[in-house]
Amino acid sequence: MVVSAPREIRRRSKSQSGEASEGGLDLIWGSGEEVFLSARTLRLNCPCAECLAKQGSTAHDKPLTPGRSLLRVVSATVEQETEIILVWPIGNYAIGIRWGDNHDSGIYSFELLRKLSNEQNRNWGEEEHGSKRP
Questions:
Q1: Mean pLDDT score of the chain, rounded to an integer?
Q2: Distance of CA 54 to the CA centre of its chain
Q3: Which pLDDT value is given to residue 131?
Q4: Which of 22, 33, 56, 122 has the fewest Cβ atoms surrounding its Cβ within 10 A?
Q5: Secondary structure of residue 12 in the 3-state scheme
Q6: What is the pTM for the complete model shown?
Q7: What is the biggest distance separating any 2 CA atoms in the chain, rounded to whole angstroms?
Q8: What is the CATH classification number for the domain harbouring 27?
Q9: How does pLDDT run across 56-73, given as a tens digit for each residue?
Q10: Does residue 101 belong to any structural domain of this protein?
């Protein structure tokens, strides 16, 4: 499925969101629909190989080349892991995000951003009506 780019993407810092809220991205889609995706939602759905492995994917269990892994273990606070430092375009199909812990290998396709936007809208609708759909 081909998903067109959002008309506008704005980074919202924690300070702009208020003390009780977190930062994230404001997306304005071609239809005019505006959606806020929290940094937490974006980080939990990071599509890079390392994060997919943490989510239980086994697609990268076997390295293409034998030998020592080049991945290094980095520890960071939750605040660092969910702080958006920089957002940049990747071709005509995605954006990259650099996080406060310097993680930046996830390629967030517009298709993924649309999917997350739709899920968030569906969840908000369920909260407004006080029930969860099956």
A1: 82
A2: 15
A3: 47
A4: 56
A5: strand
A6: 0.77
A7: 54
A8: 3.30.2020.30
A9: 777 766 666 665 555 555
A10: yes
Domain count, the chain: 1
Residue type, 11: R
47 within some domain: yes
With a CB cutoff of 8 Å and minimum separation 6, the contacts of 44 are: none
Q: What is the pLDDT of residues 22-35, one digit of tens each?
A: 799 999 999 999 99
Within-domain flag for 117 = yes
Give the distance, in angstroms, between the CA of residue 83 and the centroid of all CA atoms in the same chain: 11
Angle at 119 between CA 96 and CA 101, to 5 degrees: 35
Q: Are 79 and 62 in contact (CB under 8 A)?
A: no
In DSSP notation, 16-61 reads HH-TTS--EEEEE-TTS-EEEEEHHHHHHT--SHHHHHHTT--TTS
Mean pLDDT of 99-107: 94
Which domain does 124 fall in, by range? 8-57+87-128
CA distance 46 to 57: 12
Query: Tokens 């919202």 belong to which residue?
Result: 12
Q: In angstroms, how far is CA 61 from the centroid of its own chain?
A: 23
